[in-house]
Description:
Structural class: alpha+beta
Number of helices: 2
Oligomer: single chain
Amino acid sequence: MKRGEVYWVDLAPRSGSEQRGRRPVIVISHDAFNQTQGWRSVIVVPLSTSAAQAGRGPSAVLLPQGAAGLDRDSVALCHQVTTLDRSKLTQRIGELNSTELRQLEDGIKAAMDLR
Protein backbone atom coordinates (compact mmCIF):
# COMPACT_ATOMS: atom_id res chain seq x y z
CA MET A 1 0.00 0.00 0.00
CA LYS A 2 1.45 3.38 -0.94
CA ARG A 3 0.64 7.05 -1.39
CA GLY A 4 -1.36 7.71 -4.55
CA GLU A 5 -2.92 4.27 -4.81
CA VAL A 6 -6.69 4.04 -5.23
CA TYR A 7 -8.74 1.39 -3.40
CA TRP A 8 -12.37 0.41 -2.96
CA VAL A 9 -13.68 0.88 0.59
CA ASP A 10 -16.98 0.73 2.41
CA LEU A 11 -17.43 4.03 4.26
CA ALA A 12 -20.18 3.00 6.62
CA PRO A 13 -21.36 4.04 9.06
CA ARG A 14 -20.92 7.77 8.50
CA SER A 15 -23.08 10.77 9.33
CA GLY A 16 -24.10 14.20 8.06
CA SER A 17 -22.40 15.29 4.85
CA GLU A 18 -19.55 12.75 5.11
CA GLN A 19 -19.10 10.52 2.09
CA ARG A 20 -20.50 7.06 2.72
CA GLY A 21 -21.13 3.79 0.99
CA ARG A 22 -18.84 1.76 -1.24
CA ARG A 23 -16.53 4.07 -3.12
CA PRO A 24 -12.92 4.58 -4.17
CA VAL A 25 -10.45 6.43 -1.95
CA ILE A 26 -6.91 7.66 -2.57
CA VAL A 27 -4.21 6.84 -0.03
CA ILE A 28 -2.42 10.05 1.00
CA SER A 29 -0.57 9.01 4.16
CA HIS A 30 3.22 8.86 4.04
CA ASP A 31 4.70 5.62 2.70
CA ALA A 32 6.74 5.15 5.89
CA PHE A 33 3.42 4.75 7.76
CA ASN A 34 1.76 2.78 4.98
CA GLN A 35 4.52 0.16 4.94
CA THR A 36 4.97 -0.23 8.71
CA GLN A 37 3.68 -3.66 9.83
CA GLY A 38 2.03 -2.58 13.09
CA TRP A 39 0.57 0.67 11.76
CA ARG A 40 -3.13 -0.04 11.14
CA SER A 41 -4.32 3.44 10.14
CA VAL A 42 -4.23 4.92 6.67
CA ILE A 43 -5.14 8.49 5.67
CA VAL A 44 -7.32 8.78 2.56
CA VAL A 45 -9.29 11.18 0.38
CA PRO A 46 -12.71 9.89 -0.74
CA LEU A 47 -13.87 10.11 -4.35
CA SER A 48 -17.29 11.02 -5.69
CA THR A 49 -18.86 10.80 -9.14
CA SER A 50 -21.38 13.55 -8.34
CA ALA A 51 -21.23 16.45 -10.79
CA ALA A 52 -22.34 18.76 -7.96
CA GLN A 53 -19.13 17.99 -6.06
CA ALA A 54 -17.00 19.18 -8.98
CA GLY A 55 -17.99 22.79 -8.31
CA ARG A 56 -16.78 22.84 -4.69
CA GLY A 57 -13.68 24.89 -5.52
CA PRO A 58 -9.96 24.12 -5.40
CA SER A 59 -10.37 21.35 -2.82
CA ALA A 60 -12.36 19.28 -5.35
CA VAL A 61 -9.88 17.74 -7.79
CA LEU A 62 -11.22 16.32 -11.04
CA LEU A 63 -9.91 12.93 -12.13
CA PRO A 64 -11.01 11.83 -15.61
CA GLN A 65 -12.24 8.35 -16.43
CA GLY A 66 -9.21 6.10 -16.81
CA ALA A 67 -7.05 7.94 -14.28
CA ALA A 68 -5.72 5.37 -11.78
CA GLY A 69 -8.04 2.76 -13.29
CA LEU A 70 -11.23 4.69 -12.49
CA ASP A 71 -14.17 3.65 -14.65
CA ARG A 72 -15.92 7.04 -14.44
CA ASP A 73 -15.05 10.71 -14.16
CA SER A 74 -14.51 11.34 -10.44
CA VAL A 75 -13.84 14.13 -7.98
CA ALA A 76 -11.31 13.79 -5.14
CA LEU A 77 -12.88 15.51 -2.13
CA CYS A 78 -9.74 16.92 -0.51
CA HIS A 79 -11.87 18.75 2.08
CA GLN A 80 -12.98 15.34 3.44
CA VAL A 81 -9.62 13.80 4.37
CA THR A 82 -10.23 10.91 6.77
CA THR A 83 -8.40 8.12 8.58
CA LEU A 84 -9.46 4.49 8.21
CA ASP A 85 -8.29 1.13 9.43
CA ARG A 86 -6.38 -0.37 6.52
CA SER A 87 -8.59 -3.49 6.62
CA LYS A 88 -11.34 -1.37 5.04
CA LEU A 89 -9.30 -1.00 1.84
CA THR A 90 -10.52 -4.08 0.01
CA GLN A 91 -9.43 -3.93 -3.64
CA ARG A 92 -6.71 -1.91 -5.36
CA ILE A 93 -8.02 -0.09 -8.43
CA GLY A 94 -4.87 1.66 -9.64
CA GLU A 95 -2.44 4.47 -8.92
CA LEU A 96 -2.34 8.19 -9.69
CA ASN A 97 0.46 9.39 -11.94
CA SER A 98 2.83 12.11 -10.68
CA THR A 99 0.79 14.95 -12.23
CA GLU A 100 -2.48 13.71 -10.73
CA LEU A 101 -0.81 13.22 -7.33
CA ARG A 102 0.49 16.81 -7.45
CA GLN A 103 -3.03 18.07 -8.25
CA LEU A 104 -4.37 16.09 -5.29
CA GLU A 105 -1.69 17.56 -3.01
CA ASP A 106 -2.65 21.06 -4.22
CA GLY A 107 -6.28 20.30 -3.38
CA ILE A 108 -5.30 19.21 0.14
CA LYS A 109 -3.20 22.35 0.58
CA ALA A 110 -6.18 24.49 -0.51
CA ALA A 111 -8.54 22.68 1.89
CA MET A 112 -6.18 23.14 4.84
CA ASP A 113 -4.71 26.51 3.87
CA LEU A 114 -1.20 25.04 3.68
CA ARG A 115 1.52 26.61 1.60
